Amino acid sequence: MPDITGGCLCGRVRYTLTGEPALSGLCHCRNCQRYTGSAFEALVAFPSAAVSVQGELKTYQDTGDSGKAVYRRFCPNCGSGIIAEVDVLPGLTIVLAGGLDDPSVFTPTMEVYCSSAQPWVHAAGERKQFPKMPG
């Protein structure tokens, strides 16, 4: 698979993803809804060694329902969410799919936290759906 590139709204942060993603999906948890300002967070996760970020990131430390840390990293200039690292998924870096230069390369394969999905979002069963985080 060719490298995937992306970045923030203002262009100060750029990234390159190499290889195959470990997972992709939509997260409907309330924290992701608030973080993205949307009904869900579209995400793709890669092994951390396959993610190269250029530019400064700020970090907001959140807490997942596991009680473990979620490090949400964003551009300090425009506020675009870029990546997240979560203690429950060591060795993986989550990339917000909205920042991909070509978002058509993103195909979500699952949805998590469907128990808090907005009632007007309907996936029609096209992906595996979980009420919380599977595991």
Question: How would you summarize the topology of this molecule?
Answer:
Blueprint: E1 4-7, E2 14-17, E3 23-27, H1 30-36, E4 41-47, E5 51-54, E6 58-63, E7 69-74, E8 81-86, E9 92-96, E10 110-112, E11 128-129
Parallel strand pairs: 3-10, 10-11
Antiparallel strand pairs: 1-2, 2-5, 3-4, 4-9, 6-7, 7-8, 8-9
**Helix content estimate:** under 10%
**Beta-strand content:** 35-45%
The value of Rg in angstroms is: 14 Å
Contiguous runs where pLDDT drops below 50 for at least 5 residues: none
Query: In angstroms, what separates the terminal alpha carbons?
Result: 28 Å
Description:
5% of the residues lie in helices and 39% in strands. It has 135 residues and is mainly β. The strands form two sheets. Strands 6-7-8-9-4-3-10-11 form an eight-stranded mixed beta sheet. It has a three-stranded antiparallel beta sheet with strand order 1-2-5, with no helix packed on it. The mean pLDDT is 92.
Which descriptors would you attach to this protein?
single chain, 135 residues, mainly beta, 8-stranded mixed sheet, 3-stranded antiparallel sheet, 5% helix, globular
